Amino acid sequence: MKARIDAWGDRGWLVTVDVDSIEAANRRVHALRAAIEARRPPWLQDLVPAYASLALVVDGHAARGQAACLAEARAWLERLLASAPDAEAGTLGRRVDIPVCYAPEFGPDLGAWAAHCGLEVEAAISRHTAGDYRVAMLGFSPGFPYLLGLDPALAMPRLATPRPHVAAGSVGVGGSQTGAYPAAGPGGWRLLGRTPLRLFDPQRAEPALLAPGDHVRFVRIDRAGFDALSGAGA
Amino acid sequence: MIDIDVLEPGLLSSVQAGPRTGLRHLGVGAGGALDGFSWQVGNALLGNPGNAASLEFTLRGPTLRFPQGARIALTGADVDAFADGEPVPGWRAVALPAGCTLRLGACRRGARGLLAVAGGLDVRDVLGSASTDLRAGFGGLDGRALRTGDRLRARGLPPAVDVVTTQTGWIDPHPDIDLDRPARVRLLPGADALATPTPWRDPFRVAATSNRQGLRLEGTPLAVRDPGDRLSSPVIEGSVQLPPDGKPIVLLADAQTVGGYPCIGHVVQSDLPRLAQLRPGDRLQFETIDAGGALALACGQRQRLARISLAIEQARRLAGRPGP
């Protein structure tokens, strides 16, 4: 695989892949991440994928010094890149369905969003649930997914002034991105609905519902379904 | 186990310990004591486990009551500290009698003080660390800063003293903690080159909007050579980002894990404690360094920490020996 390796301060290495398209670049990132994950070298403290780059945080505190581990990591990475195919990583990543209740009480921007897209509300929702989305990375806050794959016809600029309070689980569109807010807080996305699932729960064995590289579908549920899933403590 | 009652919480006081590692890919940052050096020395002074949780306070400390007494150590910023009215010096172990009130006032120099308590604060680890993630709201004390009326507990035993008793031995934190200004902060180059040939000649000033996520800097505005849009990429404490307004942001431990601004440099790991001690209005002078220099600095800091721990351990053994 062709990629550039740059020093990431004195913390590790930043691998940047070719960007012909974000989708293809991100597939490369996740293929490389899976290859590194499968080998999990002892000096690797954190492995952080982004759209077209992947950071390796190197921890040399154990038996060997940071300098030795950084050098070893670099050589190891070069060998791995030389042998790793430029993967078609379509098969990697889990498939996760996220139930969403697209109701006005959860999606105050549904009407304005559909109008902006030149669609009836029902048609706009159908196209949002038809999408096959990919978790390019998590960031911004714990468990916050940056999803690729929004139908360009469904894009809408963020609010000029963010809302001071967006409920946890809110699903929305911001520019050409779509996703869901794991925690309550301020937010500028156009809100379309809400999922009863908790995207991040530090007490759970798997704290984040989604992992980088996962494939995501939004599955429409009604209010009764939402309440049932919320009540079940999902 | 001893109790600690929070009579007054200070400006921003939170339970902090070591970093939370291995979860950056889920968007979970490191967090933990911003001044990790002072945090470690505080624990060493009390013979605490290396990962024991302490209290980190910002610019103005809390007022605490110790119904059973406690052994404590204050490290980090220079702080006006009084135990039952008596001044409490920093960088040494101090035994407080039962019922003692510890009043931590203004930080005279530096921004963040650390209060270590013998045994460490009794909080449960969340995702591998006791540290409070204030932004995400977990870890430490219910994921939040201290409030009046809170009760903390520490895992140590109450000391057998009737009055405030200060240990004679103390630790000199120099050069790892240097509260002189401008602070010298060493920088490795980032992925984005700057447009100016000598960008680091002038010092920057720390803006009041700085917090545990990052230091916002003011000074001669900088520009990157290629100002085009960027795809968000991973960032970490120490990363220096440059938003379009030309004012750098130096990320601290509570920063998010990915960022979209150009990255113009990385502060070396061993200078993160210095960043933690910068307060609004303080001046900071960047100096560029190469990878070898950065690793030598980190190595030196680790050695000094090891020597400090050893010296404290030896002093403890000598003190425990029967007198002549």
Structure description:
The complex is a heterodimer of chains A (234) and B (324). By secondary structure, chain A is of the alpha+beta class. Chain A folds into 2 domains: 3-83, 2-Layer Sandwich (Gyrase A, domain 2), CATH 3.30.1360; 95-231, Cyclophilin-like (Cyclophilin, Beta Barrel), CATH 2.40.100.10. Chain A is 27% helix and 30% strand. Chain A is built from 5 helices and 13 strands. In chain A, a hairpin with a 4-residue loop joins β6 (133-139) and β7. In chain A, α3 (110-117) packs across α4. Chain A is elongated and about 60 Å long. Helix content of chain B is 14%, strand content 31%. The longest helix of chain B has 30 residues, at 291-320. The mean pLDDT of chain B is 95. Chain B has 2 domains: 2-173, no CATH class; 183-289, Cyclophilin-like (Cyclophilin, Beta Barrel). Chain B has 3 helices and 19 strands. Chain B has helices at residues 36-46, 272-276, 291-320, and strands spanning 2-8, 14-16, 54-58, 63-66, 70-83, 86-87, 93-96, 100-117, 151-154, 165-166, 183-189, 204-206, 214-218, 233-234, 239-241, 249-251, 258-259, 263-267, 283-288. Classes of the chains: A alpha+beta (234), B alpha+beta (324). Chain B: Residues 25-305 form the Carboxyltransferase domain.
